[in-house]
Amino acid sequence: MSQHIENTITSLIILEKIQPFSPENAQKNSLKSLQHSTSRNLMLLAATKMLGIEGVIQEDCPPLVYRKDKTPAPLRFSISHRKHWVGCLASTSSCVGFDLEIHKNRDFLTHLDDLLNSQEKAFLAHNNHSDSSAEELFYKCWTLKEALGKFHKQGWNTSNENLDLMLASKNSELLLEHIYLQKYNLSIAYAIKKNGLISNPEIIIINT
User: Fold this and answer.
1) Distance between terminal CA atoms of the chain?
2) pTM score, whole prediction
3) What would the pLDDT profile of 106-120 be if each residue is shown by its tens digit?
């Protein structure tokens, strides 16, 4: 499945399911290498889709795409991978964060209780998300916080204030969204700074 991408796009998410997912790829080192190479390919694909260029990867920290004349492409990237899924967010924004998670069985209510602060819990209770299961709420909150941690470049060491979903949702300079891709049993979330004419990302899913 893919969506048509215009040249004027400012943000793009590409997801790819690693194929074939053979027993040898399930080995930790082999899978890690495959995730790494796939993420770099997705970065290059995003640069082509968004800018119409054939770039090269420079393993900076974070890694960047450069044009063939060795000038950096005006894109920022955030990578996430879980097992056989790899995702890449590319944007012309100056700051981005992205996360993906594969849904699996766990004690969602207990994990939600551990994950949220008292204000976030009160907000959820007050708004009564009756249409959302505990599973959906957990993965929504988890992926959003992961995306915020990457946005602030400190992961789970980010301050509680900057990981607070209520405060983040009120930030007019931040695009923050969770998407549940039920067909693929995936949750994804992104945090993008609204500098310039930044739009919500288009999504491409490579599931060969």
Assistant:
1) 9
2) 0.87
3) 898 899 889 998 888
